[in-house]
């Protein structure tokens, strides 16, 4: 495997007397889809928040492209190509689909001086972004009137507008019906052609289909880390999580 893009070294995050993330060490390579799974309360979202920078670890370090980013805030990590989406859809619901796309593309270049005057958003960029998520024919529609699945697809496309190097996806299938899951999965596969993806997801069919590697958390600790087939066969994982899911 190529040199790691992201390295987590002994991460610990406590809430009171609870170790929500407990000595997590992990590497993620460029264009790898790494799925984080585990029971509710296993520490998955806390770990994503640590990687994104919205939480600070109590100990351990986070390295992105060989740079220690442990102390960097969210915006500084984003400027280096580390982007995330949330469990709750994050779009501008009153703006049109086109305006959402325009803002995403503009934001991707916000660090450039006098950006508007030098390089305005070209219509073909907006069209290409909306075609990517299959929403070009609804470009004049208010984003808040789209179906939940379409809003999720738009959010993913907006995240990709910044051309991230690492994309953190926190339950992108949440609230999605079976008929819409396939289009979201294709977008995630498309994203992985240019970026590493860390995927937190409860839909095990999606996880084992998309992930190159699966990391299982339980009570803040990594109890398995391997290929989908290796993890599927792991007896500790079956007892701790997969068996529970199958009997629920």
Based on the model shown, name its key terms:
alpha/beta, 6-stranded mixed sheet, Rossmann fold, 248 residues
Strand residues, percent? 25-35%
Give the full name of the CATH homologous superfamily of one domain. Answer: P-loop containing nucleotide triphosphate hydrolases
Structural class: alpha/beta
DSSP E strands, number? 10
Q: Estimate the global geometry from the Cα principal axes.
A: globular
Describe the structure.
- Helices cover 38% and strands 25% of the residues.
- The chain has 248 residues and is of the alpha/beta class.
- The chain has a domain at 4-91 and 164-247: 3-Layer(aba) Sandwich (Rossmann fold), CATH 3.40.50.
- The strands form two sheets. A six-stranded mixed sheet has the order 6-7-8-3-9-10, with helices on both faces. Strands 2-1-4-5 form a four-stranded antiparallel sheet, with helices on one face.
- Helix 3 (97-108) crosses helix 5, helix 3 packs parallel to helix 6 and helix 6 packs parallel to helix 7 (178-191).
- The chain is globular.
- Mean pLDDT is 88; it is low at 112-118.
